[in-house]
UniProtKB/TrEMBL annotation:
Stretches that traverse the bilayer: 177-196
Origin species: Saccharomyces arboricola (strain H-6 / AS 2.3317 / CBS 10644) (Yeast)
Xref: Pfam families: TRAP_alpha
Region Disordered: start-end pairs: 205-225
Protein name (database record): Increased recombination centers protein 22
GO cellular component entries: endoplasmic reticulum membrane
Record's compositionally biased regions (Basic and acidic residues): 208-225
Signal sequence residues: 1-24
Family: Belongs to the IRC22 family.
Compartments where located: Endoplasmic reticulum membrane
Length: 225
């Protein structure tokens, strides 16, 4: 009986040790995950970023703005510093995301601006031009500002803008449209030529006039031939 009690006590001791080790490992794993999340997450900054797309003000925010491929989009920024220290805007960049799939398809070329130093509660205004080298479809434009706060570089995301690349209207002098016109004219000309040629070949034939002999038996001799 004592032997079984000894075995039971040993098993409980081992299980307790394993449980303690597992709890320690889980705690360590959670701490590592939290550390990774904190390292990956961008530093927060209390900056308000607003911008307008010049020439494309839309009354309905749910409707995409329309552009043609290779169009240049002009963004006018209005930035307000709500931090308790000065912040300097040093650059602009961004990304373009496919809608509704949600994956990035292009990066906005980074450009230096300013630098614009904003005091506490101060504002700054500047612009950015973006060339849309994209195929037809709908996208989100997501601008980013690059700022310096206490010698620390941070990236500030602005609100996304939904836009659409549409096909341009066909011009009368468009080479593709002109080629279609030339083909149609060639077809019409060929049909007209064939019709005129067939009409020329079908000329009306003259009726042959046959000589009719006259019965001269009743005529006097002087009038007979």
């Amino acid at each position: 009986m004592k032997f079984f009690k000894l075995i039971g006590f040993s098993v409980l001791t081992v299980l307790s040790g394993l449980s303690a080790a597992t709890s320690a490992n889980d705690s360590e794993s959670i701490e590592q995950e939290q550390g990774v999340v904190e390292a990956v997450a961008p530093p927060s900054i209390n900056i308000e970023v607003e911008y307008d797309v010049l020439g494309k003000e839309s009354e309905d925010s749910n409707e995409p703005l329309e552009f043609f491929a290779e169009d240049i989009v002009s963004l006018a920024y209005n930035v307000t510093n709500w931090e308790d220290t000065n912040v300097t805007i040093v650059g602009v960049t961004g990304t373009i995301v496919m809608y509704p799939q949600g994956y990035p398809v292009a990066n906005i070329t980074a450009a230096n601006v300013g630098p614009y130093e904003m005091e506490v509660n101060g504002t700054s205004n500047f612009g950015q031009d973006v060339t849309l080298k994209l195929p037809e479809g709908q996208y989100f434009l997501v601008p980013f500002l690059l700022a310096s706060k206490s010698e620390e570089m941070v990236r500030i995301a602005a609100r996304p803008t939904l836009f659409e690349i549409v096909s341009p209207p066909i011009s009368f002098f468009n080479p593709q449209f002109l080629s279609v016109q030339i083909i149609l004219l060639a077809i019409v000309g060929g049909i007209s030529y064939y019709y005129m040629k067939s009409k020329t070949q079908q000329r009306p034939t003259k009726k042959s006039v046959t000589d009719k002999r006259v019965d001269e038996s009743w005529l006097p001799e002087t009038y007979k031939k």
